[in-house]
Amino acid sequence: TYSTSIASSSFYCQVYTQGKTRGRAMLRQLQPLQHFRRFASSVPSVAPGSHASTKSADLDFELARQWLKSLNSRTIPRHLGQISFSRSSGPGGQNVNKVNSKATLKLPLDILLSRVPLVLHAPLRVSRYAVSQGQALLIQSDESRKQASNVDSCYDKLHQLLRSTAEEVIPGETSPEQQKRVRDLQRAQNEARLQGKKFQSKKKSDRRSSRSDYD
Q1: Quick check: helix, strand or coil at residue 24?
Q2: Angle (CA) 109 114 120, round 5°
Q3: Which of 75, 95, 120, 197 is most solvent-facing, going by the fewest CB within 10 Å?
Q4: Phi, psi torsion values for 91, nearest 5 degrees
Q5: CA-to-CA distance for 93 and 89, rounded, in angstroms?
Q6: Which helix H or strand E contains 71, and what residues bound it?
Q7: Mean pLDDT computed over 66-77
Q8: What are the boundaries of each domain within the chain?
Q9: Compositional bias (Basic residues) at which positions (predicted)?
Q10: What is the arithmetic mean of pLDDT over 5-26?
Q11: Tens digit of each residue's pLDDT (9 = 90 or more) over 98-141
Q12: 10 Å Cβ neighbour count for 101?
């Protein structure tokens, strides 16, 4: 009976110690999350139609202008799209309907839209290349008898689509004051991005610490 009592006491002491260890680990995980929530709650919301939302729209357009100026054939990496080949009905002499030279580029819009300005999102979803209820772009080319040339043509069409859409929806240049606000916005976005990286790094560090506490 005495040995049983000692064993029981040892067991409860072990459970109590493990509980305290887990509690400390959970507290360390919650602390950075609480800091992040306070940081997120400090960002003011923008009501539609307000003066702040108008300024936000101006900033979106200015960012889009800067993006358009830097737009080139390498803006959208080729590995993001899916290329397939099929029989061509275009020029090619005896190769027509015998060689799979027709190229088809399928690009999911959720991937593309993350790389283009916000003001282009809606027009691209209803463009002439949009398929799957605006969820992807499907661009084809069979102008050449060579696969590589038709692939290049598909990406040229994508580049032309982005440029023409941007030129249609983005208004002219803004004032120096608006350009300064854009720079301030970019600086704030970079700071928020760094805060997010620090938060993720802290989470990983806390996970490693909690695992070492269990060992």
Answers
A1: helix
A2: 70
A3: 197
A4: -65, 155
A5: 10
A6: none
A7: 88
A8: 22-37+51-70+175-215, 71-169
A9: 195-206
A10: 50
A11: 678 999 999 999 999 999 999 999 999 999 999 999 999 999 99
A12: 23
Q: How many residues does the chain have?
A: 215
In angstroms, the CA 182 to CA 48 distance is 19
- Per-residue pLDDT band at 157 (split at 50, 70, 90): very high
Residue with tokens 């002499």: 93
3-class SS shares of the chain: helix, strand, coil, % to 5: 65, 10, 25
Pull the structure tokens for residue 105. Answer: 């580029």
75's tokens: 């803006």
Verdict on whether the full-model pTM lies above 0.70: no
Kindly tell me the burial class for residue 77, based on how many C-beta atoms sit within 10 Å of its own C-beta (0-12, 13-18, 19 or more): exposed
Contact by Cβ (8 Å): 61, 171: yes
Q: Where are the alpha helices (DSSP H) in 71-146?
A: 109-112, 121-125
Q: What local confidence, expressed as pLDDT, does residue 174 receive?
A: 57
174-200 pLDDT tens trace: 566 666 776 777 788 788 888 888 888
Asked whether 61 and 174 are in contact (CB, 8 A), the reply is yes
Among 24, 36, 28, 29, residue whose Cα is nearest residue 199: 36
- The architecture that CATH gives domain 71-169 is 2-Layer Sandwich (3.30)
Side chain identity, residue 124 = L
